[in-house]
Amino acid sequence: MTQDKPANTAAHPISPQVVKDLYERMVRIRLFETEAGKLMEAGKLPGFLHLYVGQEAVAAGVMAALRDDDQITSTHRGHGHAVAKGVGFKEMYAELYGRVTGACLGRGGSMHINDVTLGMLGANGIVGAGIPIAVGAAFAARYKSEDGVAVTFFGDGATNIGSFHEAANMAAVLRLPVLFICENNGYAEFTPQSKHMLLTDVADRAAAYGMPSVIVDGMDAVAVHRAATEAVARARAGEGPMFIEAKTYRYYDHQGVKGLRHPYRSQEEVDTWKARDPIDLLRDRALADGTATGAELDDIERRTRDEIAEAIAHAEASPLPDTADLLLNVYSG
Amino acid sequence: MTDVAVEVLLPKIGLTMQEGTIDEWLVPTGAAVREGDVLLRLATDKVDVDVEAEAGGVFHPVVPAGTTVPAGTLIGWLLAEGEQPPGPGSTPMPAGSGSLGTDAAPSADGATAFAVNGAVSLSANGAAAPSANGSPARTGAGGRLLSSPNARRVAREAGVDLTAVRGSGPGGRIVSEDVEEYLLAAAASSTAPVPAEPLGDPIIPVSPLVRRLAKERGIDLAHVRGTGAGGRIRRADLDAATPAPIPAPAPAPAPTPAAGRQATAPRPGDVVPFTGMRGAIARRMHASLQEMAQLTHGYEVRMDAVVALRAQLKEEWTDSGLPVPSLNDFLMKAAALALREHPLLNAAVHEDGIHLHQDVNVGFAVAVPNGLLVPVIEDTAALPLTELARRTKELAENARIGRISPAQLEGSTFTVTSLGGYGVDFFTPVINPGNVAILGVGRLKDGVEWVDDRPRRTQVLTLSLTFDHRAVDGAPAAEYLRTVETLLRRPLRLLV
Amino acid sequence: MTTITEAPAPAPDGTARTLTYVKAFNEGLGQVMREDDSVFVAGEDVAGYGGVFRMFEGLLEEFGPRRMVDTPISEAALVGLGVGAAARGLRPVVDLMFMDFIGVCLDQIVNQAAKMKYMFGGAVSVPLTITTASGAGLGAAAQHSQSLEAWLAHVPGLKVVMPCDAYTAKGLTVSAIRDDNPVVVMLNKVLLGSKSEVPEQIYGIPLGQAHTARQGSDVTVVALGRMVGEALTAAAELAAEGVEIEVIDPRTVQPLDTETVIASVRRTNRVLVVHEAVTFGGLGAEIAAQIQDAAFDYLDAPVLRIGAPFSPVPFSPVLEKAYVPDAARIAQGCRRLLERS
């Protein structure tokens, strides 16, 4: 890599464009997810729905630091990453509805939404499975002498899986341009972090692979964005992978909207995290420092709502897959 | 292996069977048999059939071979391992021939000593016995024939009844080669309809390769001496063998299931019992000659026109799929049409007089191993010759493989029998009881016609008409023959 | 990249070149790498050491570390790397050394590589090749001797090839790499040193096309991988007894060329399927089922399967020899199928 090492962006104030970009990405995620949750509760969507609400700052902060040709791999909780990477609402809702116009032609559903033209290499139904794939995508970029990077998102729970450790080590050994983004929402499904690892900071694991790491406030989109920007620049410069642990929180249950039948976490804990809602935080800050007006931000929200309504109508009007095409795309050629 | 003893009852074959003779038990007492194994050869007055076990078990006969009993009679047991056959009291034998209905089951009374509600119970002496009134469900005769799917396919396509085929595969399973060999032999037997003469043990140890080579070279393996281990025929043995058209029905044309397994021909010193078909033929022929006043006319007929027509049909119909009628078919049709003009020969003699039949149903004799059968063509005179040919061919084949049903052997009003294929010119056929005449067909041969003073070669054969003088006199019999000849000289009429 | 060229017929004058199985594989791989820069090899000890079976010898020297990549012993990450790189347009060849190791990376093979195209609505292809050494016979015991083709052939999206000799080792490997789907190439350890005629130029062998290795009329023997050679040995023995068996080498077990097998069975009416893998749930069961489905009416005997007994592969040579099917068992099976009294 011959690119000049960029300046440390953390020292610079965030531009109004970036603030509005981050805000828009988060609002798009939030509204997409809350509408999807309603549709699920209304019984309109088949299958599982792992909602991203609460964690928007991580997807928005990282994705705003990427180019379209940078690749990401996601998780079962992948809508936020897809939306933030730019995947269209129409393809996403249509996929949730199982329609042939969906992102996977109705073959994948929520956990396999992808758009390879935007570098979105798919949500993934297997915890930790996307991590080595991102390493492969990074390998491909370097193999082709491109300066693209690959970003893999995963949760705290996934760092207990072998593929994480194997992939982290391999990326480090091969010095590949990979960002390991751990969205630590404190729970592996319903098991609190304290019960699934003895570490307080997942980031400590990176050291085992000789990989630098940083911990950021996962409710603060600006902080995430600054860390990601720095890591991306580093990776593009050929300095190898980096690990970012974003401490964040999942508002809804592991699956679906409300599933608090078993009180695995307290209302107080939920309320504490919600008091630092990432969208509210950014809005307050933007209004306070004048990087955006209330009207501008409201307009973003209104436009997004309109787009979502249109996308849902499109999905509902879309045809179902033809059972005659059951074997479509099992093989290439 | 059954866990409850199962009764073996004499099956009722066909509508008219009243009683049957156990020709032979084909498994020894105490042998373990499986469902579908052939248990016995049953002889009725019409046909011989093999009866299969409906369940597995250790076989124990109740009546000895040679016994004639009514249908439905208990004739044996299939017992559980270690089980003893029930005592005499539990094996109800018919009080006398015909005293039980044709589908009568053994009386429950006889088995009360052992049976409790259909379950197996222990008798005083510790032996388990079946319940007579609650024994396992039965479905008439026959279990499952062991045959490979391919054998079934080949048989289906060739119209072969598998029960006539000997199985050579593991456990006696009929495999496709068995069917092919059967067909080969049947084809040979139909071109030269010599009654089957079993040529000794038909089981020839031979590899598939040798089988194929033999087939290709037209060598009948039954006539090849095997020099391999255990008499196995090796490739070299084939080279030493004379390639020849496969003679007569060699080892396996198994016209009835029984004959297929009957490994040996009667030898000097043997006693051939009057059982089954043999017995029926003996009784009927004897009765015929005892009862009727039979005499025979010999009458030479010119066959040139028929022979020429046949040759023409052969040529023109080659690719049409139409069956080219045989000489016998022409003769049957002629005989049948002539009967319409001479109804007295289409009759039956009863005590009150001669009953002239409404219909003309001509029977034709088919030689089968151990005897002959007479399938009947209904309304023979009305059938186009092609249809008649199709039916005679089908019935003859079925008769040879033992697949003929009793109904197809009933109702003849007149009979045609041919020995021409055997080189016989003239003979005295014996009238089938119920008919008043039978027409014998002799050998087709060269005759001479004098045109002025010059001899000309013609084709002739001799008809041998036996008639019952009680019903028909010599002159009308001769007139009938003349009508037949007229039809044969102008055979186009016979076609429709 | 899916263009397949079948090899020209070996030279008729007997001057054709012979090559060992492992060298044929190596040659084919090198030729594809020369032809297509997107092909690279990754795996443990594939580069510096040349592969524990010498499969990759000389390739580092020619292609350099960019295309010959040594990796940690991390099969999940290794296959994942292959999946990600394949999804990004490369043609990775990842080597798993021993087939027994697929257990530690099965998720990447089964849930990622095999399904990605389908799950993504066709948006990506995964032209990934996984090479691995399978088979018993070297005293490698239970964890280094298995033939697990049935596991993989069960997974929609995967292809599985089983070269039976040097010629197929080269041609199937070339086709596997050129194929746009994930393909597992099951090399056989015992055959690595075996020689057969191998054309020098690059050639592919069409995937999903069975090869009739020997024509015969009495029994069809469908043999997988190394069992093809055993079946041919059995054929020679049986020919001396006047029995001509037809030996069919499916070459690819997924997709399986059922048509060729069925056509043969319809002629011979008897069929035996033989593979090294345990009989229970093996490919033999699948092939038998397809035969009864398509050719039931042509069978003169039940389809006979010969495979390993239902146990792990034993270590002691005497046990191992008894475990793996061989020509004698195949010949015996054929005799059993032909048994007539």
Give me the secondary-structure topology.
The complex is a heterotrimer of chains A (333), B (496) and C (341).
Chain A: H1 16-41, H2 56-63, E1 71-73, H3 79-85, H4 89-96, H5 130-143, E2 150-155, H6 162-173, E3 178-184, E4 187-188, E5 191-192, H7 193-196, H8 204-207, E6 213-217, H9 221-236, E7 242-247, H10 267-274, H11 278-289, H12 294-317
Parallel strand pairs in A: 1-2, 2-3, 3-7, 6-7
Antiparallel strand pairs in A: 4-5
Helix pairs in contact in A: 1-2, 1-3, 1-11, 1-12, 2-3, 2-9, 4-12
Chain B: E1 6-9, E2 19-25, E3 32-33, E4 38-43, E5 48-52, E6 57-61, E7 68-70, E8 74-79, E9 121-122, E10 128-129, H1 149-158, H2 176-191, H3 208-217, H4 235-240, H5 257-261, H6 276-291, E11 294-302, H7 304-316, H8 327-341, E12 347-350, E13 353-356, E14 362-364, E15 366-368, E16 371-373, E17 376-377, H9 385-400, E18 414-418, E19 437-441, E20 445-451, E21 454-468, H10 474-489, H11 492-495
Parallel strand pairs in B: 14-18, 18-19
Antiparallel strand pairs in B: 1-8, 2-4, 2-7, 3-6, 4-5, 6-8, 9-10, 11-21, 12-13, 14-17, 15-16, 19-21, 20-21
Helix pairs in contact in B: 1-2, 8-10
Chain C: E1 18-20, H1 21-35, E2 39-43, H2 59-67, E3 68-70, H3 75-87, E4 91-98, H4 106-113, H5 116-119, E5 129-134, H6 149-153, E6 159-161, H7 166-178, E7 183-188, E8 195-197, E9 211-214, E10 219-223, H8 227-239, E11 245-249, E12 252-254, H9 258-268, E13 271-278, H10 283-295, E14 304-308, H11 317-323, H12 327-338
Helix pairs in contact in C: 1-7, 3-4, 8-12, 9-10
Task: Summarize the structure in words.
With 333 residues, chain A is α/β, with parallel strands linked by helices. Chain A is 43% helix and 9% strand. Chain A contains 12 helices and 7 strands. In chain A, the strands form 2 sheets. Chain A has a 5-stranded parallel β-sheet with strand order 1-2-3-7-6, with helices on both faces. Chain A has a two-stranded antiparallel ribbon with strand order 4-5. With 496 residues, chain B is of the alpha+beta class. Helices cover 26% and strands 21% of the residues of chain B. Chain B is built from 11 helices and 21 strands. In chain B, helix 1 packs parallel to helix 2 (176-191) and helix 8 (327-341) crosses helix 10. The model of chain B is unreliable at 88-142, 191-203 and 244-264 (pLDDT under 50). With 341 residues, chain C is an alpha/beta fold. Chain C folds into 2 domains: 18-197, Thiamin diphosphate (ThDP)-binding fold, Pyr/PP domains (Rossmann fold, 3-Layer(aba) Sandwich); 211-338, Rossmann fold (3-Layer(aba) Sandwich), CATH 3.40.50. Chain C has a 7-stranded mixed β-sheet with strand order 3-2-4-5-7-6-12, with helices on both faces. Chain C has a 5-stranded mixed β-sheet with strand order 9-11-10-13-14, with helices on both faces. Chain C has a two-stranded antiparallel sheet with strand order 1-8. Residues 1-5 of chain C have low confidence and may be disordered. Chains A and C meet through helix 5 and helix 6 of A and helix 3, helix 4 and helix 5 of C.
